[in-house]
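Hi,

I'm pasting everything inline rather than attaching a file, because the server keeps stripping attachments. The sequence lines come first, and each chain or strand is labelled.
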Amino acid sequence: MPKKPLSVYIHLPFCVQKCLYCDFASGPAGTDEIAAYMRLLTKEIRSFEAIASIYRVETVFFGGGTPSVVAPFYIVQLLNQLRSQYEFAEKAEITLEANPGTLNAEKLVKYREAGVNRLSLGLQSIHESELKLLGRIHSYEDFLESYELARQAGFANINVDLMSALPKQTMGKWKKTLETVAALNPEHISAYSLSIEEGTPFYERYGEGRIGRLDLPGEELDRAMYHYTKEYLGSQGYSRYEFSNYAKKGFESRHNMTYWTLGDYVGFGRAAHSYLEGKRFANPSEKEAYPEASRTAYQRFRAASPQSEKDAMEEYMFLGLRTARGISREDFRKRFGRSFPKQYEKELLELYRSDLVEQAGGRIWLTDAGIDVSNIILARFLLD
Amino acid sequence: MSIPQDHIRNFSIIAHIDHGKSTLADRIIEQTGLLTAREMQEQVLDNMDLERERGITIKAQAVRTVYQAKNGEEYILNLIDTPGHVDFNYEVSRALAACDGALLVVDAAQGIEAQTLANVYLALDNDLEVIPVINKIDLPSADPDRVIDEIEDVIGLEAHDAPLISAKNGINIDQVLEAVVHKLPAPEGDPQKPLKCLIFDSFYDSYRGVVVFFRVMDGSVRKGSRVKLMSTGAVYDVVEVGTFGAGQLIPCDELSAGMVGYLTASIKNVKDTRVGDTITDALNPCSEALPGYKKVQSMVFCGMYPADGAKYPDLRDALERLQLNDASLTYEPETSVALGFGFRCGFLGLLHLEIIQERLEREYNLDLVTTAPSVVYKVHTLKGECIDLSNPTNLPDPAVIDYMEEPVVSAEIMVTTEFIGPIMKLCQERSGVYEGTEYIETTRALLKYTLPLNEIIYDFFDALKSRSRGYASLDYSLKGYERSDLVKLDILINREEVDALSFIVHASTAYERGRRMCERLKEEIPRHLFEIPIQAAIGSKIIARETVKAVRKDVLAKCYGGDITRKKKLLEKQKEGKKRMRQIGNVEVPQKAFMSVLKLDQDD
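And the predicted assembly:
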């Protein structure tokens, strides 16, 4: 039987210091703590041995946190562990998230040797004032140095993370960030609008009803920045393949596409989420809970019940519609053995008439206007 | 236990709201040993959750207790606790008809209030003996001598030997009990005569059918008696008779003249047991029925609709059962374009409306949409017809209307002299006509006004309290109808008229009301994918407009790795919010928006 494609996510919840907007499971840690975590993580990966024979690894993603703060031999070890269990696709995409200020030539070479072939660099902004405001530890110069080192080390697939709709940000400053970064010619750019999450220092300052909120760009400016991003990056050879992701042709992140197209993925580490055999399960995000959770992960996966068809259909729609390719009736029929529920047809017709979705060649996707208000639209694909 | 008829006392406690009726009832129950101190909870007779939460009595409640008096003899005390708010006067009068006497509780600090007077008059109308009781003597501001003088001067009741008590601290409760035994009359009535009972309340029990509360005037009734309800002629065999324990029904063998109790007879048809009706013996009927109660007039109407249209039959059943327990509630079916099938319900006042709405939602688990309350207008057409209009939507074409009349009330507001100015100003703002002032004593006055009912049903009570720092009290009764310059204000949402939002206002305030209504709706209606104009119109003339802007941005930029649960929760929240909306054309309107008109004055 041919093996099924699998994406693997590995969470490394360590960083130099928390950014002010960050609500991911992450924080600074000592070497002992990191070593202890790695032991648990390795065991967790090993505990999923039984599934290895039916899957072929297509992508691996080291996310965090800042995976580049841990000693590179851990990355080597983890990849070796995976390779010892799983068959890897010939052109497997192996991504590592890294932050400027935590990289050097030596580390980069080791990543390359271990098989990492895609680097995702967190820059966010080229302006010192904005970097400082976000609580980033690096300067634009640091980024530039890391970027050059990565190229020299042979990374031919680099993503740069950027952030718009920052407090006090003007259109001019955002344009400058975009232009400067595009000029470096990375293969991939992620451009997010800042979202203020509860439990972060930013929420205290900019959350609902807070005074600082006034400094955030209004909806109109936020959308103008978003629309400009597509337009400008488009002119530079990047196409938007998901709400916040732009890539040169052939450099779309295959790992991320797995999430949006209901592909199988397994997540290891604190707060990691998995979708295997139609089952959704996850490790808790609390630090204290991970040791126990890492030991029970496989049993929990076995004991979990597959999601309902209703859940799967809803997810197919609201995840698929995040992508530029969108969804298709044909895919849907293949996956679920039936055509769209009436509710979907009704909503799609209405959305089509309001120019919020577009369709061609059997595929359906959100228009730019549709993306702007996508939460409202996607909620309509939850079934009654 | 056989206690002679002359050792029975049927009495009520009447008072202005918050003067301590229910607390006194607690103490009486406790001191007569019906409940031990451990079993006691505060305001034990307020057994509805709603009553406990709001700290008010809504339903009259009956309880029977046995008191060993100081002369060594045992007396049966049937105590009926009554509500104090003006909206529930009807409950009070029903309860009083089953009694022979009443305790009038007056707060030793506040003295006589508007509802004190109103309730005393109700008691006297029912030929009850009234004993004044001065409560809250433990308060630092208590001034019992002044209050005693007030009672004597204003009401004309002998009050110098009134018990001075603190119900809260249990002081001198025995004096109250002795007064009940010695000063209130025993019930009259002849146990040998044909059975004659007055129904003063009833409720529906899923197991026993209708439970009827009544007072035996003549004759006696027991298990197995075949009884007839005189207004409908329906005949039933009594399954059980009994008396009122604290919060429970206690079966007994027989109830005879002078006694208060309940019966069950497997009565399934709730319409058979009208409050105020007379029960008699089917085989040996009494010659004529008791006069019963005068039919109450609903003062305030509103539309009540099930949030889920499929629940219409449930709402109908719930109203039918609630009416059994609250005869002052009226309802009839109506249809709204915006809200579907529902009922136009009539209430004694706004508090009554709120209470019924909450009882429907809690006791019957219904989710309701309520439209703005309206009074009943009289519409005189050019053809000389007169239409009673309780639903603004049904207003005929202005071209065929000759003139309209609105209900007005005689209002009596009791207030300390320092607040006379602000209260008079308030009454003027509400189109009141000054009728006079009576001084109760040098520092307190009774202001008399004629006010449009429409002006006082919304928030007059609150305004009164806030402008008098809580000291003013109000009583009112319907006076009649007066000609008035009225118009119907229609609301258009996205250019579609929403019948359930129409209301009738004075022409002079229409512009202001329309503007505020639009502003309020703008706040209530969430932004949509398109712009929504909200307009107020009189006929075809738009007098106000607001716009709910279209949503420009509602997008989750970030994708949390493989964690799609957060995303899904967000979408589910969005969908859940939508469920609580009413679809008007292609606009989702939150259910509470239909009550918006109520809050128009709260921004003052």
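Chain B touches chain A through 24 residues (CB under 8 Å).

If the labels don't parse on your end, tell me and I'll reformat.
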